[in-house]
Amino acid sequence: MKGVLTRFAARSNLLHRTLDRRTAATAYTGSSLQMELAKYRVFKANRVRFQQARYGAIVGATPKFSAHPKWFFAAMTDRGTRPAVRDIVVFVQDKPGGPWLAAYTPLATKPVSGPLVPGIDVADVPDVVPPGDPSLAMPPVQVSAALADVINQGGRSPHLRAFAVPAWAKTKRTSLMSDRKTFRSLGWRGEASYSASQAPVYAVRTKSGGALVWTAVELKEDFRRAGGGRGVTWKHSTWGDLFKPFTGRSSMKKAITTVERIEVLAYVPPRGRGKVRFLANRWAPIAITGN
């Protein structure tokens, strides 16, 4: 594991300096690769720089496998940022002798060291959890769809009671409602909603009998201007203009389709022993088209 993490730290820092989309697949795969490629496009166009990571205080576990693909996870404290954060990364190897690549990279702002969940631990060689495991408060394969429904419907969602809803999810719900209202007020018509991502789900057993689950949700917004409506722009507070790096223009006047992804790490307790809690997340727009 140590050699894999050392190589990843060096390779990801190099990629974050060069923003080289052609070689991103030497460190990333799956969901993380899509998100990294999108960020490189935005950062290069807007002259934004990544902070270089300084990893330490690493904890992790390697599940039991009899064949490939194999995967393990590592929670790595990054003190290259202020304040420190923790990247909780799933590394995947598709075939014997193949590279270990980061497939999920959600980050946590606290805690940034020690156990991922107070009182919850994972064995050094834990079991992989089946996607449909009925012994849990929610099967891993259902977490993303249920979370998407909670963001879409708020208090009307039948899944609301299953979650300890984090502040960021409440903010996403507020932003979703605001986007729908804003587009309508500007004379645009269309749809905006969250759904489960098609990215693979990874889950590992905890000593409590619960599971750590890596999954993702996506927000798709698809709008067309009706009649004499006004054009729209999209600027991120630190990343800058998000439309121009993808479409070549800063203002959309006729049509716009965007896809945003949020990777999440959830702790799912055994059935009847509490609510699903979210430990880490990472956001990025992964596709934008329009004119």
TrEMBL record:
<feature type="domain" description="DUF8094">
    <location>
        <begin position="4"/>
        <end position="282"/>
    </location>
</feature>
<dbReference type="Pfam" id="PF26366">
    <property type="entry name" value="DUF8094"/>
</dbReference>
<protein>
    <recommendedName>
        <fullName>DUF8094 domain-containing protein</fullName>
    </recommendedName>
</protein>
<dbReference type="InterPro" id="IPR058407">
    <property type="entry name" value="DUF8094"/>
</dbReference>
